[in-house]
Amino acid sequence: MPNIRKKQHLGLTGMLLIAVAFTGLQLTAVTGRASPDAKNYLSYALSLSGESREEAGRRAIAYSCDSGQHASLSPVPWTNRKAVGESEEQCVRRLNDSVAYWSRHGNTSGMTAPFANQRFMAIFEARPGYPLFLVPFIAVFGITWGLWLAGLVVAFAGSVCVLLTLRAAGASRRAGLAGQALYLALPTGTVAMNPLSDGLSLALGTAVVLGCVLLLRDRPGTDGGSGTRTGPWPVARVAAAGPRTGAALVAGGLALMFLVRYSQALLLAAALAGVLALWSGWLRLKRRQFTPVLRAAGLCAGLTVCIYAGAHLLGWPMGQDSAQDLLTHHYQRPDLPNPWPEFFVQEGVFWSAWLRRQITSPVLPVLLALSAWAMLKRRSVVLPIALAAGAAGLLNQAGHPNLGQLYGYRLIVFLWLLPALAIPLLLDRPARGASPVPAQPEKVGGGQRDGRVGVAQQPREGA
Fold this sequence. Notes:
Layout: H1 2-26, H2 38-48, H3 53-70, H4 88-104, H5 118-125, H6 129-168, H7 173-185, H8 187-193, H9 197-215, H10 233-239, H11 243-285, H12 291-313, H13 319-327, H14 340-360, H15 363-377, H16 382-398, H17 417-422, E1 442-444, E2 447-449
Antiparallel strand pairs: 1-2
């Protein structure tokens, strides 16, 4: 028992040390992170707090322009400066003039301030989850520190879900901590800290990934022969969780994502349904137990339909609106009768430029190569789920082939979940005879070991 407690303390200490190190680094940039879209979410949150639409717009402009003065002048597009050298006063004047112009031209209702035409602002009106999340932080800590702390909570939540996902899949403590550290060090951590809906959507996506791992596990994980749950409190609770908890996390995470960024929720659910359906088909061909995977695919497919139907019934902007937004410069030009031919031309232009960017700065290709190596060398239930999450990131970027996002990460950020979840598995020894697929239970040492998630057969540290 003392040895188990010591290992629990080591795991908790590792989690806290990573969190403290990340917090210290983020203190170097409390402001300067706002993108042009940040003021839309902030004005929405201030309106929910009880401020008038005009006052909410004024305060959002003040924060946005102040943040622009502290932003990096690198080509990463999350600075609010329209041109290099624009002063704070010029920025305030420009945005106030824009608000006045669009107010005179029909944008007189809604929760967000009239920074653009009403059709464009409807995109942000359809994302109430993130502004609602910001309200208590802004009310207690003010705008600057409230947004920073909200980003910190979002980043920590996502990183802990990555750690728990790896531990639930049978990975060692060091692999789990490596996953947490990678999540915070990669663009996933950067995006989480930006005052945009992408970070909260990503954190909820990691909860969905964790739910999928639990959904494919038939019984709680324990410490070897003693049956004792090990690890810090959250790890022990996840080790005790089962398919019902997994299903609740998948459904609940996607439901909350629907309110935060419904397009990403739709793509994640669809990608999971597709990958899990293919996986179950492969298992069936191999004459292995495929029912749990097929059941998980059915759940994700059903949620995909619900998300699409919900957005359609609420009248939220859909794929056609997104294409017109891109091709008409935020609806400031007349709609195209058929936007798709030109949209696919933009796809080719964007991905050609994106591939050239990866060649000159090959960080992502190297990490994806390591992830592929992990898939070949390790067997873990987390790998196909991580692959589906990465596919959701590629699909999201494909839906917005905007060259202005070429140097950014936020639209494709789910792709970075793949290395954060796959590479840490290389720190563990391959489990002999373990399979990442559901299998029939087998007798081990006089007791029954469930094989529905074969990676859980890997011995945990300290077992």
